[in-house]
Write a structure and sequence with these properties.
It is a single chain. By secondary structure, the chain is α/β, with parallel strands linked by helices. It contains six helices and five strands; from the N terminus they run E-H-E-H-E-H-E-H-E-H-H. Strands 2-1-3-5-4 form a five-stranded parallel beta sheet, sandwiched between helices. The N and C termini lie far apart (about 30 Å).
Length: about 150
């Protein structure tokens, strides 16, 4: 699985920690930065990670800022990007399984490194259930979200 990852200065340290962890787990990574603690703008990184998913250069994405809220709002403005801000493991997996989430947003000032790793594990191990026979209700709901997206 190819993972695109990005962070602003507030999420830089957690991003670096997660990159190390994900490399150890054998994932193919695309790191869009930032690469220092110097102040940068989170929408720039949300756009890069979102575009990697849109262009199918990445299967899923991870974005990190101080709260996780900013990157989540920015990413969700992009067509075909379904970002969720998760600070608990249930939401990180259920968001994929039921809602087709393809981008995990984290708040580095809200959670620690160990919880972040657990959230990433749950997010990456989960599979969308809407494509399975018992998942008709999930597909129906996701299709309604896509219709809203297409209406603008």
């Amino acid at each position: 699985m190819r993972i695109a990852i990005g962070a602003d200065h507030g999420g830089y340290a957690l991003k670096e920690n997660l990159l190390e962890y994900l490399r150890e787990e054998g994932f193919e990574l695309i790191d869009f930065g930032t690469n220092s603690l110097s102040s940068v703008d989170y929408p720039d990184f949300a756009k890069l990670v979102g575009q990697a998913i849109q262009e199918k250069k990445a299967d899923r994405g991870i974005l990190i800022c101080g709260s996780g809220v900013g990157v989540c709002i920015a990413a969700n403005k992009m067509k075909g990007i379904y970002a969720g801000l998760c600070h608990d493991c249930y939401s990180a997996s259920q968001g994929v399984e039921h809602d087709g989430m393809n981008l995990l947003c984290l708040g580095s000032r809200v959670i620690g490194e160990e919880l972040a790793r657990s959230l990433v594990d749950n997010f990456l191990k989960a599979e969308y259930l809407g494509d399975q026979p018992q998942g008709e209700r999930f597909a129906r709901r996701v299709n309604k979200v896509k219709a809203i997206e297409n209406e603008g």
